[in-house]
Amino acid sequence: MGGLALIIAGAILTSMLRLYLAGEYSGQGIVRARWWWEIVLNLQILSGALMWFCYVERLADATGPMKKIMCLRMAFGLIVVLLPIWLAILSAYMDWFVVRPPIVVIDLMLCGMLVFWALSVFLPRILILKTKPTQYPNATFFSLMKPRAWYSLIPMYVLVGIWVAAMINESAIHYLYAPLMLYFQAAVPYLERGFFGRKLPKTSS
User: Fold this and answer.
1) What is the pLDDT of residue 200?
2) Which of 10, 91, 94, 161 could join 180 in a cystine, given CB atoms 3.0 to 4.6 angstroms apart?
3) Which pTM value belongs to this model?
């Protein structure tokens, strides 16, 4: 559920950027249409509910340090999947639905997404290392950051490849796929845990 919520949110952001790059008349006209925002709001409700139900039972069963870690992960998850709504509110406040923002604003937003994604990755792990809950008795920074398998970083590899190709060809294709790949990368741990279960750090011999 958490992975699906992230993928839905990434797809919404990608569609927003596609409309931004489509042109002043085609893209801007759609993004101000009522039917468009009804679809977006319904998908946002779905993604928010999926992320909520992903954590609510685990949060109720957690005790001690794990309860704080689950609360932090849940808060990050809800903020991230509801980012399209935060952007819509900011766009209405800044009047971007009438006057499109310059591309530098999109660059700053993507940088902000990267920073927030990094915080959502590092802060829960720092809390695990600090509190040492029973679920992670021998956790180290490396064991917590190590990918489950070689395929765990495929979305990031694809994003880097697209970005390099865009820089060489001087195109804007990386703007279209950056949110989707970032959200897909964030969804990978949820999908792995959902299909393969939780993998605890190996105990030291």
Assistant:
1) 44
2) 10
3) 0.80
- Identify which of 8, 17, 31 has the alpha carbon closest to the alpha carbon of residue 80: 8
Provide the domain count of the chain.
Answer: 1
Taking the C-alpha atoms of residue 158 and residue 179, their distance in angstroms, rounded to an integer, is: 12
pLDDT for 49 beyond 90: yes
Per-position b or e across 20-43, b if 16+ CB within 10 A of its CB:
beeeeeebbeebeeeeeeeebeeb
Residues in the chain: 205
| Structural domain boundaries, residue 188 | 2-195
The answer as to whether 143 is a domain residue is yes
Q: What's the angle, vertex CA 11, arms to CA 164 and CA 4, rounded to 5?
A: 115
| Rounded-to-integer distance, Cα 187 and Cα 194, Å | 11
For 129-170, the pLDDT digits (tens) are 887 777 777 777 677 777 777 788 888 888 888 888 878 887
Contacting residues for 110 by C-beta, under 8 A, at least 6 apart: 175, 178, 179
Please check whether residue 60 lies inside any domain of the structure. Answer: yes
Q: Is residue 201 part of a domain?
A: no
Q: What is the dihedral of CA 65, 70, 75, 78, to 10 degrees?
A: 180
Q: Residue 202 domain-assigned?
A: no
Residue 198 corresponds to which tokens in the numbers above? 């939780």
